[in-house]
Amino acid sequence: MSYSVEYESEALADLEKLDPEIRKRIVNKIEWLAQNFEQITPQSLTGDWTGFYKLRVGNYRIIYQIDLSEKIIMIDVVGHRRQIYD
């Protein structure tokens, strides 16, 4: 069973700033995550990002949270790996 995906306004703004080809790759990866979430082990973050998870798409990262009871993946931030954790 797949998860639903919701986007925070910051994540939507981040996606709008990206090149269309990169944006397409990231959205495809998010859709893949929603369809395959139960077959993967999410990569959890630590420190200030405790409670969040990351997904890698080339040099870009998707930072998200999971609501297991509601089966929702909340996309919080999208950005280049050098700047995403600032």
TrEMBL record:
<comment type="similarity">
    <text>Belongs to the RelE toxin family.</text>
</comment>
<keyword id="KW-1277">Toxin-antitoxin system</keyword>
<dbReference type="InterPro" id="IPR007712">
    <property type="entry name" value="RelE/ParE_toxin"/>
</dbReference>
<dbReference type="Pfam" id="PF05016">
    <property type="entry name" value="ParE_toxin"/>
</dbReference>
<dbReference type="InterPro" id="IPR035093">
    <property type="entry name" value="RelE/ParE_toxin_dom_sf"/>
</dbReference>
<protein>
    <submittedName>
        <fullName>Similar to C-terminal part of Q1F5C4_9CHLR Addiction module toxin</fullName>
    </submittedName>
</protein>
